[in-house]
Amino acid sequence: MTQLRLALAQINPTVGDFAGNTELIVNAARNAREAGAQLLAVGEMALTGYPIEDLVLREAFVANSAAALAQLQQRLGDSQLDDVALIVGALGADGPVRPQAVGARSLAGARNMAVLLHRGQVVAKQNKHHLPTHGVFDENRHFVPGNQLSIVTMASDDGPIKLGMLVCEDLWHVNGPLAACASKDIGVLVCINASPYEYGKDAARVAVCQQAARHTGAIIAYVNLVGGQDELVFDGSSIVVHPDGRVLAHAPSYEDHLLVVDLDLPTEHLKRHTPDTALPTELSELPEQPTITIEHAQTMLRPRPVNVKPAPAGSAQLIRKERGQEQQTWQALSLGLRDYVHKNGFSCVVLGVSGGIDSAVCATLACDALGGSQVHGVALPSAFSSQHSYDDAADLAARTGLHYRVIPINGLVKTFSDELPLRGLAAQNVQARLRAVLLMGISNSEGQLLLSTGNKSELAVGYSTLYGDAAGAFAPLKDVYKTMVWKLARWRNSYAEQRDEQPPIPENSIVKPPSAELSLDQLDSDALPPYDVLDAILRLYVDSDAGREEIVAAGYDSELVDSVLRLIKTAEHKRRQAPPGPKVSTKAFGRDRRLPIANRFVG
Amino acid sequence: MTQLRLALAQINPTVGDFAGNTELIVNAARNAREAGAQLLAVGEMALTGYPIEDLVLREAFVANSAAALAQLQQRLGDSQLDDVALIVGALGADGPVRPQAVGARSLAGARNMAVLLHRGQVVAKQNKHHLPTHGVFDENRHFVPGNQLSIVTMASDDGPIKLGMLVCEDLWHVNGPLAACASKDIGVLVCINASPYEYGKDAARVAVCQQAARHTGAIIAYVNLVGGQDELVFDGSSIVVHPDGRVLAHAPSYEDHLLVVDLDLPTEHLKRHTPDTALPTELSELPEQPTITIEHAQTMLRPRPVNVKPAPAGSAQLIRKERGQEQQTWQALSLGLRDYVHKNGFSCVVLGVSGGIDSAVCATLACDALGGSQVHGVALPSAFSSQHSYDDAADLAARTGLHYRVIPINGLVKTFSDELPLRGLAAQNVQARLRAVLLMGISNSEGQLLLSTGNKSELAVGYSTLYGDAAGAFAPLKDVYKTMVWKLARWRNSYAEQRDEQPPIPENSIVKPPSAELSLDQLDSDALPPYDVLDAILRLYVDSDAGREEIVAAGYDSELVDSVLRLIKTAEHKRRQAPPGPKVSTKAFGRDRRLPIANRFVG
Question: What is the interface pTM, i.e. ipTM, of the complex?
Answer without folding.
Answer: 0.92
